[in-house]
Amino acid sequence: MCLIVVGWRIHPDYPLIVAANRDEFHARPSAVAGYWPDAAEIIGGRDLEAGGTWLGLTVTGRFAAITNVREPGMAKGSVSRGALTSEFLRSDATAIEYARKIDGALYSGFNLLLSDGETLTYASNRDGEARTLAPGVYGLSNHLLDTPWPKLIQARQAFSNAMQHLPDDAAFFDLLADRSLAPDELLPKTGISLDWERLLSAVFVQSATYGTRCSTLAWVSKAGSVRLHERSFAPDGSLVQSSLISTSE
Hints:
Elements: E1 3-8, E2 16-25, E3 30-36, E4 39-47, E5 55-58, E6 63-68, H1 82-90, H2 95-100, E7 110-115, E8 120-124, E9 131-132, E10 136-140, H3 150-162, H4 170-176, H5 194-200, E11 210-220, E12 226-233, E13 239-246
Antiparallel strand pairs: 1-2, 1-10, 2-11, 3-4, 4-5, 5-6, 6-7, 7-8, 8-9, 11-12, 12-13
Helix pairs in contact: 3-4
C-alpha cells in the first residue's frame, strides 16, 4: 500500500474514513476484498504470497493499514509486514497496546495505522515510539506520517473536500484515480532512479510491471456499521473488478 489518507473523528456521521491505493508488483498474487474464510469477522483484501493484508476492517470497526518505507539497499526483515495488520485485526488488544509490543527489528521499514474504535494509533519502526493521534486528516505514503510529498499534499486536500459529499464516494475515487506526475523539482530523493521517482509521484501509479492494484474507500459510521468499497485494476490501469461490502442493513 503506497497511499493512505484517514479522516479521524472529524465528520459527524463517520468517525473513521479511509481512502487508499495499494501499489504492488502485478505478478504478486492477491485476493480481492471480502470476508476472510478463516476469520469471518475480517473484511479486506489479502496477500496470497505471505497471507497478510495491506488494509482491513472488522465487523466491529477495528481497522489496520500499512505502507512500506522506501529505503533501497536496506536489509529485508525476517517477517512479512502484512502480519502486523492481520494479527491486530484478529486480536482484542487496544491499538496502542498492540503497537507498543511490536518488535520493529523483525520487519522491513513500515508505517502502521491502527484503530480499535476508540483511538487511532500510528506506529513505525523508522519513527520512534507509537503514538495516539488527535482528530484530524492524516496521510501516509512511503515515508513517515504526513511527510509532505506532492501527491500526499494533493490527496489530503482532495480528501477533505470529498468528505463534504458523503455518503457519495465518487469524489474519493476521483482523487485516488489521479495519474498526474509531480514536477521534477518537487520530487523526493529516496535513492531510486529519476524515472521511478516520477512514476511513483502520481496518486495512481501505472506501469506494465508495478502500479496501483486497487483503490479502497472504507468507513465506520457513527451507528457502528462498516463499509468497504474496493476497485481493482489491470496493469494498463483499466478497471477489472469492483467489490462492495457493507454491514449496514
